[in-house]
Design goal:
There is one protein chain. This protein has 356 residues and is an alpha+beta fold. The protein folds into 4 domains: 97 residues, Alpha-Beta Plaits (2-Layer Sandwich); 57 residues, MutS, DNA mismatch repair protein, domain I (3-Layer(aba) Sandwich), CATH 3.40.1170.60; 57 residues, DNA polymerase, domain 1, CATH 1.10.150; 100 residues, DNA polymerase, Y-family, little finger domain (Dna Ligase, domain 1, 2-Layer Sandwich), CATH 3.30.1490. 36% of the residues lie in helices and 22% in strands. It contains 13 helices and 12 strands. Helix 4 packs antiparallel against helix 5. The longest helix is centred in the last third of the chain and has 22 residues. It is globular and about 60 Å long. The relative contact order is 0.12. About 2% of the residues have low confidence.
């Protein structure tokens, strides 16, 4: 069988880098994309900010405590989406097999050497060079024979670097890594593994499939495979996204129905922008509510056909939030999600080695 050549491209501090590119006064300074409000959350952080322990999803007050000189800038998602479209247009010059994971990262199957560069390594370098030339932004890349290893590798030389994991080194390299870095092993699972004496890839590989099934159920085959550097998943350019959502945390707990409804409308509009841009329309709307005491509820409703107008999405979301209004206690967060989307590659031409 032909050995796949997979590249995982990951933009470096994407949102924050766009802001630093567009505003020279921000360059070299610790930058957080988000809002400095008491209930704000960091959406992205520049590398200068990361040195102080500022990371995405960190509460803004904590971020400022760690880095008093932190500069907050509001997110500009329309700009990020446009830059992402530029980057994906570059990908398309090298392969049709592109699987986006988010605005700032994607898998590429470059087994078919479309540009005749000779190796996947040179292909990754060329892609990164074009991204820098056309957007002014840097990207990192991981190159390997499967998706799991390519994603691990892209983080190995960040920022603005690349790293390759060849077939003869894959299994041994995985053994040296902490399992907390593995895709599919979240913090809770990593802690459970630690209690079982599993902290590295080597520890994971030493456990039998039966042992893993006993402790991790249906996830066991995945853990068993990746501990050996194995991942048969193809790059799927037609991967179906199951939902699109947006949520906001208010500056204070809200009790007034009109303020809560306004927040829901903003989130519905944000989701609509994604749906319209991707021409992806769903039948099911879900509204999420988190109260001041962190109790969380959801309300969902499905339409007989796909929602193809913003006003319909707004109305559906408002109908759902109104089932809990007026609230018995303050509301901290609201979110809107659309799901249940309605459906509205050439074979590799030749071997491309990772290295010459």
């Amino acid at each position: 069988m032909v050995t796949r050549k997979i590249i995982h491209v990951d933009m470096d501090a994407f949102y924050a880098s766009v802001e630093q590119r567009d505003d020279p006064a921000l360059r070299g300074r610790p930058v957080a994309v988000g809002h400095a409000a008491a209930r704000g959350v960091v959406a992205a952080a520049s590398y200068e900010a990361r040195r102080f322990g500022v990371r995405s999803a960190l509460p803004s007050v904590t971020a400022l405590r760690r880095c008093p000189d932190l500069v907050f800038v509001p997110p500009r998602f329309d700009v990020y989406r446009e830059v992402s479209r530029q980057i994906h247009a570059i990908f398309a010059r090298y392969t049709d097999l592109i699987q986006p994971l988010s605005l700032d990262e994607a898998y590429l199957d470059v087994t078919d050497d479309r540009q005749g560069l000779g190796t996947a390594w040179r292909t990754a370098k060329a892609i990164r060079a074009e991204i820098l030339a056309e957007t002014g932004l840097t990207a990192s890349a991981g190159i390997s024979y499967n998706k799991f290893l390519a994603k691990l590798a892209s983080d190995h030389r960040k920022p603005n670097g690349q790293f390759a994991v060849t077939p003869d080194m894959g299994a041994a390299w995985v053994e040296t890594l902490p399992v907390s870095r593995f895709h599919g092993v979240g913090p809770v699972t990593a802690e459970k593994m630690k209690r079982l004496g599993i902290e590295t890839g080597a520890d994971l590989r030493s456990r039998s499939l039966a042992f893993l099934q006993r402790h991790f159920g249906n996830s066991a085959p995945w853990y068993h495979a990746i501990a050996r550097g194995e991942d048969d998943r193809p790059v799927n350019p037609n991967r179906v996204r199951k939902s699109s959502g947006s949520e906001t945390t208010f500056d204070r707990d809200l009790l007034a129905p009109d303020e809560i409804e306004a927040g829901v409308v903003r989130m519905a509009d944000d989701v609509w922008a994604w749906c319209e841009g991707r021409q992806a329309f769903g039948r099911t709307v879900t509204v999420k509510v988190k109260y001041g005491d962190f109790q969380q509820i959801t309300r969902s409703r499905s339409q007989p056909t796909a929602i193809t107008h913003r006003e319909v999405l707004r109305r559906s979301a408002l109908d759902l939030i109104r089932t809990v209004l007026p609230p018995e206690k303050g509301i901290r967060l609201v979110g809107v999600t659309v799901s249940n989307f309605v459906d509205a590659s050439p074979a590799p031409a030749g071997e491309l080695p990772i290295f010459a």
